[in-house]
Amino acid sequence: MSTVDLEAKIPNNVGLRDNKRLLRALEKWQPAFLQWWRDMGPSDFNMNDIYLRTAVGVGKGGWAHFDYVKMPDYRWGIFLADGVEDRKIHFGDNIGASVWSEVPGEHRNRLRRLIVTQGDTEPASVEQQRRLGHTAPSLYDMRSLFQVNVEEGRHLWAMVYLLHTYFGADGREEAEAMLDRHSGDSDSPRILEAFNEPIDTWLDFFCFTTFTDRDGKYQLASLAESGFDPLARTTQFMLTEEAYHMQTGENGMGRIAHRAAELVRDGVDPMSVGAIPLEMIQRYINFWASRSMDLFGGEDSTNAAESFASGLKGRYREGDGIYRDARALESAYQMKVPDGDHLVDREIPLRRAMNALLLDAYRADCVRISQRWNRDLQKLGVDFQFEIPSTRFNRNQGVYSHYRFTPQGEMISESEWTKRHHEWLPSQKDRDYVKSCMVAVHEPGKFANYISPPSMGVNEQSVDFEYVKFH
Amino acid sequence: MSEQKLVYVCEGGDCSEKGSGDLHDNLKEMLQAKDPSEEKVRVRRYPCFGGCECGINVTVWPDRLFYSEVTEADLPEIVDQLVADGPAVERLCNKVQPDVEEMVWSLLDSPY
Q: Among A260, A307, A322, A291, which Cα is nearest to A396's?
């Protein structure tokens, strides 16, 4: 197992101590990162002690060391999963060749774009969530928010390490640009649209961590298959932290739904006590799920085909050998596409349908989560079921953009959309109401009235543990 | 020769709390003793199946077996099933909701 240098200014297991040039470059970037954290990270609470998990190693349990930390003192480090000896590329045209430990010249631009696009999302989400701490529904949730924030900061470090190490002056410029673009900035926005949406309520935050971070999981998982070994090893380790973010969302949404369902069961209108009705939660699900589906890109994509062919980006869990054709040359992906006012069947050569395949795996995962929430509603005896919208609904990217569909995927006219879209997506009134529910609760073990307590605390601590210390 | 099996051990939050990390390592070690080059069985971790109430969950593909509430004590029988093509460990099957199983099989039974 690789040795982790925890004493270094930048904790790492990549031998920074022995690479003076790289060390100097990263130490030069570090103050800019800390300044960005102060300017664009959580807007307050930086002097409070937060019970945070810090990665101190890549082995079993090494990523989960808990202690009180002030956020600016968090040890943002660079960690790669341990390498596999004699690893081979296992998909695409270069199948069977040794993986690359340096950037192959012919794929340089494509790789850089993949890394920059992924990297840009990491600081973006911290910026989107920077004011949320002020309305945390409990200390438990406030801790979760800050845990997600510092780890997204660490993921930025991971991508910046790759840019600095393997892409020379271009990479250094890209790393600086990551701190110059800002979420929602009209002059210099973040690259992907969903990362320019404001996240100003905890319902949005839990939707974001359920649906948008889950896109991140699928993108990272497909990069973890990469023939560019440093990228594969970096993203493999990031996935362990990303799992916590999705769990935060999944559990948070489940707890908001549980609270609403308890009230419905008891004959109380959730809106009469500052809780969020199930129908309104469904509209938020429709919004964030569809916005996150856009992040997968076009269903028919030559870019995706080239990334697969060159061995840079595989399918979800490609390395487990679950696909019949590792070159993806022998079959076609079937899908229905709009043609005028109706849908027709179309076959897309499989390589060009890589984004669609990944999106299918993502949606199946989202359905699994909604079914988990639904089982809880059923247990409470409430007759309501959440649904994940069709991949056609409310899309701004891909073959279904410019057309209108119901959440069930039925094609409709523009006039019907105009009449009905407020049934499916949050209205301004919904947003104002949800905002009005956001009240800060700072007493250990107490929760705002729109959300149930979790079933257990963090790291075997109790739910009423003092996760954030204000003194 | 029977098809190579792929075993996933869930490492979601609830399963991890119940010790799925150790269970994964022990299963892998027991299998390694009988199948050192992973010719018959590969064991991998899986982020979360969503059958959290029934953890620890373990799946076997292409046999389409979804074992739930698995403990260390069940491992010898599971290893027999995997390596010697023994019978499924029935007492561990059919515990999760069918839709949870379906999600896993829809991924693994990819037509591509």
A: A291
pTM of the predicted protein model = 0.92
Determine the Cα–Cα distance for residues A82 and A330; give it in Å rounded to an integer.
Answer: 34
pLDDT tens digits, B77-92: 999 999 988 899 999 9
Interchain contact B3–A (C-beta under 8 A): no
Task: Give the SS3 label for residue A432.
Answer: helix
CATH class for the domain made up of A16-469: mainly alpha
Residues whose CB is less than 8 angstroms from the CB of residue B23 and which lie 6 or more positions away in sequence, other chains included:
B9, B56, B58, B70, B71, B72, B75
Whether A342 and chain B come into contact, CB under 8 Å, resolves to no
Q: Class assignment of domain B5-108? A: alpha beta
Lowest pLDDT segment from A123-137, A198-212, B6-20 = B6-20
| ipTM greater than 0.90 | no
Give whole-number Cα distances, A346 to A334, B75, B86, in Å. Answer: 6, 46, 44
A243 touches chain B (CB under 8 A): yes
| Sequence ranges of the domains in chain A | 16-469
Which residue in B has a C-alpha nearest to residue A214's C-alpha? B47
Kindly indicate the confidence band of residue A63, based on its pLDDT and cuts at 50, 70 and 90: low
